[in-house]
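Posting for a labmate who doesn't have an account.
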Amino acid sequence: MVKEKIYALASFFSGCGGFDYGFHQAGFKILLANDLWGDAAKSFRLNYPEVPVLEKAIQDISEEELKNIVGGRKIDILIGGPPCQCFTRLNNNHLIKLSEQKKEDARRVLSQEYINKVRLLQPKIVLMENVKDLLVRKNQDGKLYREIIEKAFSEIGYKLYYKIVSMDNYGVPQKRKRVIFLATNVKKLIEKLDKNPDFGFPKESKKVVSVREALSKIKEGEQLRNHTFTENDKDALIRIQNVPPGGYYEHLPEHLKIKKIRNGKEVIVKRYGSYYRRLHPDQPSVTITDNDIIHPLKDRYLSNREKAILHSFPKKYHFFGTTGSVSQQIANAVPPKFSVRLAHKVFKMLEVCV
């Protein structure tokens, strides 16, 4: 979309660039990006070669370094997604272990480092994406991280708003729920958001995109990067063949479930819901994680390119790294199609800030 004014953006915890994609498409000028993970930083550079990428921990980026890169230009919007693994329900056992050992997971303080960059750059609008469970997680002193984040923003003059969004409601072929935090220090925008908080978030789409529709973008036999398939052994293949559409391990015939001896008796091993998960062709995908996911119609796991398509990345988007690395980069990313919608909404908010 062509705009008369070009707004400037800074990106932290940028990963492979999913969050940045929509803003780049909408004509925002990305002045800098940041990620500590080398593979993700390389993927970002491949897709946005004109953007300087600081490949280091966010806490190691100095104020002087920021000023040198920005070059005196005013940052209008700051975006990022601090690592979320420590907040997710899949990590409950890890959280308990850390609590028992009286240790604070270092990743939890990264949101504070992010807010410190907000203090230094003073953007009009700040966006922060994370898993929705962050809203209910507490630190070892019993304080909600949501309230800690809200207080930290308030202390530097920003008011915080947030909304839980499900990506399948925004044209992404994936059921993925995330919380989007929006903060601003602009009085006119605060007044508008106080009256109508939904003004800060994109409208939901009426069209739901199915797995079948999304994967149809890849033609049979098409040669694409990151489109190789895992070779399964005989036992795994038999299990894959017996998982119904939309089902997983628990839907296997009893004789194919894994068994072990407990107290001298043979018992069936219980498994979590993503184990041997097959997608349903006529529904959006389950949340894309680093786990293997079975193709809806074929007896094999999805390729990374298919995962990327279900994450709404363009078919030609570049990823750097091993199969496992690319899978994790995709899983960590904000779906690009959602970021496009969000970027259009941000432009409208920035018009209010004038």
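Reply:
Got it, the structure tokens are right above this. The beta strands are 8-12, 29-34, 53-54, 77-80, 125-131, 159-166, 177-184, 259-262, 265-268.
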